């Protein structure tokens, strides 16, 4: 049975205090909404980064994170860094592969054990991107400087784990609680759509849990969510809005994939031609020329994007593998690339 939040044990009381503390700080790690709006309104033939381009790169990062066995925390932090950077900088699509891999590498260095981080050249080789180790190092420095060295973040995953722990502590009906791996997979699917970067992390995480309990028709679990919502003073209309978008995302996504714990490396089936190209790219990649830096101004529109061109054309998303892996059904992998 559910315990009331007014009658908490010490551990649960500490979890709720942590939730309140993080809610007070979460706005500091949100991407600038002006920049997100510019990406949303950008056309595909525009010289700036569009939502489609950004979403494709996040899918690539999910694939790379799975391939190298990185944790969900690494992936979520990489997406947060990517969105915060793209929302304040004028970026050409051809630079997005380097930016994306740089964000993933920064996140991995902050989250993973050093022994679990692959060499930089291997990360670049597997991503099939046209830049060098020195390009990656230079881009990481730019990202770090533009984000004012605030590379850690309070994310929706932070709240997802705390909510899950509180719910476990408040009920004896453990069989009705979805696994944290399932909830993490659903959150990762949401993060592949730019719209969710506008959500408060606390609200997005609670929306993922709420729609899951709603789908399971678990009234007891929904009561706990309502009690958490009331205790944390999350507005009904805000939760309802994002809950609806999460439900829509889960409908579009192959929700059965969310049942699989995301703790295995993604398996890529690589053709002989792709393997040869990978081997060749490792030794002969063109260096990116110096990247001019320009920031979004709050009053600027998408038409004022400063050109950040480079001599080598590249796609906004790095080339994919010849077959999808366990966590990328074809209908999801192709979403947003049509």
TrEMBL record:
The keyword Transmembrane does not apply. Pfam families: Cyclin_N (PF00134). Keywords: Cyclin. Residues 59-145 form the Cyclin-like domain. Belongs to the cyclin family. This is Cyclin-like domain-containing protein.
